[in-house]
Design goal:
Rossmann fold, 6 strands, two-stranded parallel ribbon, about 20% strand, alpha+beta, 4-stranded antiparallel β-sheet, 6 helices, single chain, 2 domains, about 180 residues, about 35% helix
Length: about 180
């Protein structure tokens, strides 16, 4: 499903990712473990198109996606959650997820279908229905993480990249995450 070959990323004199090779099969669950600054987030940002690689190739379902734009990678079936939650604070929780359904899917869908997918994704992650219409700026960090995951799932990804799922959560919240 995903193959990374000889991937290297530098930031000036700092080598964040150095000649990395790996392969992930469909259905596999893989975790990256390492200290702060080891290049884990950088790797996910390269795969998702946020950063460009200095050298090496990335293949997803046998297609070269190296240095493709994030929206192109998302439409091919790779979604990413962020270490620090990204949202549209003035929009509701439901609207934030509708955005993912509308613009992240490989096929064009209408607003009604996007709203349905958003509701399904929010239900799946356990987001309370009574808060679907709350402005995101009024929600706590756990709820924001749930919205972010639901938005990624609403794109119907074949591969989901999750960066630091428990960042910003206390031990009890981390256990529930």
């Amino acid at each position: 499903m995903l193959t990374v070959k000889n991937l290297t990323k530098r930031f000036g004199g700092l080598v964040a990712v150095n000649d990395l090779n790996f392969h992930i099969e469909e259905g596999e669950i893989v975790g990256l473990v390492g200290p702060n600054g080891a290049g884990k987030s950088t790797l996910l940002n390269i795969i998702s198109g946020i950063y460009h690689t200095d050298s090496g190739r990335i293949y997803f379902q046998d297609e070269d996606i190296t240095n493709s734009a994030p929206h192109e990678i998302c439409k091919r079936g790779i979604a990413k959650t962020f270490q620090l939650v990204q949202s549209f604070p003035e929009m509701t929780a439901h609207q934030n997820v509708v955005v993912g359904a509308l613009f992240g899917n490989s096929e064009k869908i209408d607003i009604k279908e996007a709203e349905h997918k958003a509701s399904e994704a929010l239900d799946f992650v356990g987001f309370p229905r009574k808060k679907f219409d709350y402005a995101v700026k009024n929600l706590n960090v756990v709820e924001l993480k749930m919205i972010q995951l639901a938005r990624a799932l609403a794109t119907e990804p074949k591969l989901l990249l999750m960066d630091e799922v428990s960042t910003g959560l206390n031990p009890k919240e981390s256990k529930n995450a």
